[in-house]
């Protein structure tokens, strides 16, 4: 029992409140120090983390609302460790960028801005760390409030309409999930038993399949809207265009991952039968997201929308990995969540730099030839673009490969269809790079090199991307033990369905304790003989 | 004939407000400004405080009895709902202090009527007998008819009072008819007697009994503004002086749901299978009608009226399920509803006194910069009504959905969710106006010059600031802080709600 995770959650909020009380420059410094503190904590936990254990670490478990059976239950394991680190890193970057580097100029009401930004970080961290379903829902819904303000008050263009649309879309999903979460807690309570929302407890109290099905639909809607996935992405274009850049960085890079994470953390362990039942539907949505997102990404001229639609496609890949319902797919999905967060944050920062050089326009039509006097910027952009299209050597390559392996293993048709997405990613990313950096010099373009402050913000992100590409084992090793456990519930169900052709049941008990923290390499050969 | 014995300690809360009402009227004969401006509201506040203190003392002893030959119940349900009514009354007095209405109508009469109405509400929620129920119902209503018309120089206020009188009388008549039929069917005016009769002599499907229940529902639905008996609500709320609207919106709803809870979940619980589906249908209609009606309202008072209709629908869901959890959820939600609405109405009052837009949505424009002490309470109230986390509204909805799912009325959980979705459209609009309005305002074209956009000068007129109406701001801030506090630590209120729920004996 430790208090560390509670500190991590409330540190940004507390720092921002102190800043608000002090006023003046202190507002910015307090916000930056708060997010720096979380980053420090995250790095310490990355080092201290025990990779060999799939169990929760740094567990906090206190009574919060006994009448409703809600406990203040937090924990860190392989599933959320990397995502917490990602949140810490990107929020630090966004806060520094907004406070000092002019990624978004905050001249009006800085107190409110940095308070809301910190509140958003606290809410996201809370959602990632929650081990009680009600606490998760609490933070998941809370996330919307600060983003409503951040986009509505500091955004551009039709900001109020955009932020209202965003909140209504996503809160519709969230409210359905609220009903689903309560139903899950109430209906799984054995008669005479005490109601509990603890995720570990819920996984031990399986519901009948019919009930699982409708609750699954409620959860899936909430998560798919948040991601966003193909038919539910209506809020995305307006929201992305209106959001201030510093907010957009964390929103697109981190908030969408909360939804994908929710599938792995909540849906698969508590509703395994429903996950299996809806597997095909989810895979179809995933493939549609990939195809649709890619197609719109290479027909769009607004750089923000290119990245926005590419995110739809990337999150399609992540959904594909999760609902391949295999260890490999889930591992790849988790890896890809981190990669996509890093890459898209770097690319949005670059969009800001490009716009500054193209007379304030973010349209590809007004860009071109920016590389001419900015070789370093061009190099960083190229690295991020290549990572985004999953070039071998980038961490995204590892992530997408694992996802595709997992999908081909269980659902070969969807795997083949998804492979086309990899090719399309190359098209739209290279098109964007080329039209912005090369081609003829645009009318309003003034090419200049990246300045020191901007470099200090962008270079570390790119460095992390490169480092993960060289040594993906850093991420995989830490997440492996937990991820295997989360998919196990579904895999056990599938054995009779697939008649033992895929994944014989004997492998699962062997997989969990047998490969604690073992690198991916040794695990693969173990799988090889059983897979065909 | 022997007069009934009365336990005066248990009866003291009701006597305190009733006596306060008479005292206020007597003191009002002194025309001195000090008496009028300070003593009268002070007396009213003191009498409510005394009543609340007696209620708490009686509650502490934990006895569950009936007094005056079973006419009034003294239990956690009656005392809990009474305390909510007292809170609403204190809020209404604070909001009326600087109001011109109290002066126009005569301060003595105004505060006396307010106290009389509070007395009626406390009798209503304690009623253990159909006759007491009706007495409380009328004592609640008649002073309110007058108070709605208190702004005697304002045509809309007079219209509002008249409309409320006519609609309210129809409601009262319907209720009385229904109560008579219930008495006719069961042969008892006593709740315990009715409950016992339905089990033994009278069939639960007896047509006379069911018609009586239907008419009683209708009468009470008028008061609680449950659709389709809600049409008067927006007009009356808009026309009535805003402090009266605030009191009416909150206290009447508390009293109405208190008596509905006791009548349906205690006396008539054994016929739940008969009235359950009918009330569930009303619940659906109310949630949808209220939320859809609120969209597009440009008057804040009308918007809050429609939102009140919608909230009545959510509350009804807690009644329908007929379980202890449902009763607890209703009490919890009413307490939260009280805080959120008083906060919102306080801000409306503060703004309508200084803004050219009156109670229009535009009166809140850029309030976030101009006076954050008013903007934050309004923001918290709106987020709370919409059910966002960190506010008490989240746990209110959580508990209601919990009750409906546990009571096997999953469809009502869906109704609450759908209603909340629709409600975002208008709650968020209020927040957007306060925090996200454009900074430029357009100066209309003068002859020979084009219209242009300028930034308004910083700083507002002195009377617009929060400091000019400290008591209104204080009410708003206090309520908002409580909404947040309960939103983070709802435990104490859940304990109280559990106590209130436990006083209904009929649940399994």
Describe this structure in words.
Chain A has 532 residues and is mainly alpha-helical. Chain A has 2 domains: 1-277, no CATH class; 285-491, no CATH class. Chain A has helices at residues 4-22, 26-48, 81-101, 110-129, 133-142, 144-154, 159-187, 199-204, 209-226, 236-242, 245-270, 272-277, 279-297, 303-323, 327-357, 375-388, 395-410, 412-437, 452-470, 473-497, 507-514, 520-527; strands spanning 57-65, 70-76. In chain A, helix 15 (327-357) runs antiparallel to helix 16. Mean pLDDT of chain A is 86; it is low at 497-532. Chain B is mostly helical and 508 residues long. Chain B has a domain at 275-438 and 464-501. In chain B, the strands form 2 sheets. A two-stranded antiparallel sheet of chain B has the order 1-2. In chain B, a hairpin with an 8-residue loop joins strand 3 (441-443) and strand 4 (452-454). The two termini of chain B are 40 Å apart. Chain A binds chain B through residues 65-68, 108-109, 112, 134, 137-139, 141-142, 144-145, 148-149, 152-153, 159-160, 163-164, 167-168, 171-172, 175-176, 178-179, 182-183, 185-187, and chain B through 368-369, 383, 387-390, 394-395, 397-399, 401-402, 405-406, 410, 413-414, 416-417, 420-421, 424-425, 428-429, 431-432, 435-436, 439, 490-491, 494-495, 498.
Keyword list:
heterodimer, A: 532 residues, mainly alpha, 2 strands, 72% helix, disordered C terminus, B: 508 residues, two-stranded antiparallel ribbon, 20 helices, 4 strands, 2% strand
Task: Find the structural class of chain A using helix and strand composition.
Answer: mainly alpha
- This entry's quaternary arrangement is heterodimer
- Radius of gyration of chain A equals 22 Å
- Write down the overall geometry of chain B: globular
Tally of distinct domains of chain A: 2
Mean pLDDT of chain B: 88
């Amino acid at each position: 029992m430790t208090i560390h995770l509670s500190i991590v959650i409330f540190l940004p909020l507390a720092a921002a409140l102190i800043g608000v009380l002090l006023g003046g420059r202190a507002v910015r410094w307090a916000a930056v120090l708060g997010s720096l503190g979380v980053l420090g904590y995250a790095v310490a936990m990355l080092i201290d983390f025990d990779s060999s254990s799939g169990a929760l670490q740094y567990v906090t478990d206190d009574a919060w609302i006994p009448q409703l059976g809600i406990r203040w239950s937090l924990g860190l394991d392989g599933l959320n460790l990397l995502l917490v680190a990602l949140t810490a890193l990107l929020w630090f970057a966004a806060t520094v960028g907004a406070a000092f580097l002019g990624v978004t100029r905050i001249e009006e009401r800085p107190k409110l801005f940095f308070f809301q930004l910190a509140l958003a970080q606290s809410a996201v961290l809370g959602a990632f760390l929650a081990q009680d379903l009600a606490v998760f829902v609490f933070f998941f819904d809370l996330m919307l409030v600060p983003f409503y303000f951040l986009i509505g008050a500091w955004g551009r263009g039709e900001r109020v309409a955009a932020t209202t649309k965003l909140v209504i879309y996503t809160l519709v999903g969230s409210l359905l999930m609220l009903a689903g979460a309560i139903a899950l807690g109430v209906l799984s309570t054995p008669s005479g038993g005490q109601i509990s929302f603890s995720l570990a407890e819920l996984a031990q109290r399986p519901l009948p399949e019919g009930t699982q099905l409708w609750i699954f639909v409620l959860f899936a809607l909430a998560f798919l809207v948040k991601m966003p996935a193909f038919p539910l992405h209506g809020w995305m274009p307006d929201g992305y265009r209106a959001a201030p850049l510093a907010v957009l960085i964390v929103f697109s890079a981190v908030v969408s991952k909360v939804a994908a994470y929710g599938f792995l953390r909540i849906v698969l362990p508590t509703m395994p039968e429903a996950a299996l039942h809806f597997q095909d539907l989810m895979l179809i949505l995933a493939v549609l997201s990939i195809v649709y997102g890619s197609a719109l990404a290479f027909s769009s001229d607004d750089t923000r929308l290119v990245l926005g639609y590419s995110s739809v496609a990337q999150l399609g890949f992540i959904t594909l990995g999760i609902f391949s319902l295999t260890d490999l797919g889930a591992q790849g999905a988790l890896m890809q969540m981190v990669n996509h967060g890093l890459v898209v944050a770097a690319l949005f920062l670059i969009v800001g730099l490009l716009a500054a050089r193209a007379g304030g326009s973010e349209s590809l039509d007004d860009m071109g030839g920016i590389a001419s006097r900015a070789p370093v910027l061009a190099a960083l952009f190229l690295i991020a673009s290549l990572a985004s299209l999953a070039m071998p050597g980038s961490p995204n390559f590892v992530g997408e490969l694992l996802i595709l392996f997992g999908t081909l293993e269980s659902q070969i048709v969807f795997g083949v269809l998804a492979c086309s997405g990899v090719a399309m990613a190359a098209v739209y990313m290279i098109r964007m790079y080329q039209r912005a950096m090369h081609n003829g010099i645009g009318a309003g373009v003034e090419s200049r090199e990246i300045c020191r402050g901007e470099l200090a913000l962008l270079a570390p992100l790119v460095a992390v991307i490169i480092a993960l590409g060289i040594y993906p084992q850093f991420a995989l090793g830490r997440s492996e033990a937990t991820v295997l456990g989360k998919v196990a519930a579904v895999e056990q169900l599938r054995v009779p369905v697939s008649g033992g052709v895929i994944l014989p049941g004997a492998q699962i008990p062997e997989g969990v304790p047998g490969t604690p923290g073992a690198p991916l390499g040794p695990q693969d050969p173990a799988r090889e003989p059983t897979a065909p | 004939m022997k007069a009934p014995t009365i336990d005066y300690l248990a009866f003291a809360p009701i006597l305190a407000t009733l006596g306060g009402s008479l005292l206020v009227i007597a003191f009002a004969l002194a025309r001195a400004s000090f008496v009028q401006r300070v003593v009268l509201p002070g007396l009213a506040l003191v009498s409510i405080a005394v009543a609340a203190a007696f209620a708490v003392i009686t509650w502490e002893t934990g006895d569950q009895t009936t007094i005056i030959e079973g006419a009034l119940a003294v239990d956690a349900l009656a005392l809990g709902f009474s305390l909510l009514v007292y809170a609403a009354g204190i809020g209404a007095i604070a909001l009326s202090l600087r109001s011109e209405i109290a002066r126009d109508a005569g301060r003595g009469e105004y505060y006396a009527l307010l106290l009389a109405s509070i007395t009626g509400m406390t009798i209503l929620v304690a009623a253990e007998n159909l006759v007491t129920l009706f007495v409380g119902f009328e004592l609640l209503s008649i002073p309110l008819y007058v108070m709605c018309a208190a702004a005697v120089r304002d045509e809309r206020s007079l219209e509002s009072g008249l409309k409320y009188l006519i609609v309210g009388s129809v409601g009262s008549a319907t209720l009385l008819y229904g109560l008579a039929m219930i008495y006719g069917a069961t042969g008892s005016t006593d709740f315990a007697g009715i409950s016992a009769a339905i089990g033994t002599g009278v069939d639960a499907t007896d047509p006379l009994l069911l018609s009586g229940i239907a008419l009683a529902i209708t009468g009470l639905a008028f008061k609680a503004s449950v659709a389709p008996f809600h049409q008067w609500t927006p007009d009356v709320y808009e026309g009535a002086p805003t402090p009266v609207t605030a009191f009416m919106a909150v206290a009447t709803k508390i009293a109405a749901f208190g008596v509905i809870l006791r009548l349906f979940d205690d006396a008539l619980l054994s016929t739940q299978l008969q009235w359950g589906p009918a009330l569930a249908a009303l619940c659906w209609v109310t949630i949808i009608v209220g939320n859809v009606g609120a969209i597009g309202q440009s008057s804040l008072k009308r918007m809050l009226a429609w939102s009140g209709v919608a909230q009545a629908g959510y509350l009804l869901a807690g009644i329908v399920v007929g379980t202890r959890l449902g009763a607890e959820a209703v009490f919890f939600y009413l307490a939260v509803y009280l805080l959120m609405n008083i906060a919102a109405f306080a801000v409306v009052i503060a703004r309508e006194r200084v803004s050219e837009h009156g109670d229009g949505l535009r009166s809140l424009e850029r309030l976030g910069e101009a006076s954050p002490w008013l903007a934050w309470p309004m923001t918290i109230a709106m987020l709370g009504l919409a059910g966002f986390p960190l506010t008490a509204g989240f746990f209110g909805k959580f508990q209601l959905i919990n009750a409906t799912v546990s009571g096997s009325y999953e469809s009502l959980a869906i109704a609450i969710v759908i209603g909340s979705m629709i409600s975002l459209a208008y709650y968020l609009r209020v927040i957007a106006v306060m925090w996200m309005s454009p900074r430029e305002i357009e100066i209309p074209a003068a002859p020979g010059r084009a219209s242009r956009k300028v930034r308004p000068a910083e700083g507002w007129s002195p009377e617009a600031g929060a400091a000019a109406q400290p008591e209104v701001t204080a009410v708003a801030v206090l309520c908002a802080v409580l909404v947040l506090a309960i939103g983070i630590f709802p435990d104490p209120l859940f304990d109280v709600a559990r106590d209130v729920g436990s006083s209904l004996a009929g649940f399994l």
